Amino acid sequence: MSSAEEKAGECVVCCHRCGEILMESVIASSHMVCPGCGARVSINVKNGKVSVFDDTRSADEMARKRSVRLAGYAAKLGRGTL
Question: Which top-level group of life is the source organism from (predicted)?
Answer without folding.
Answer: Bacteria
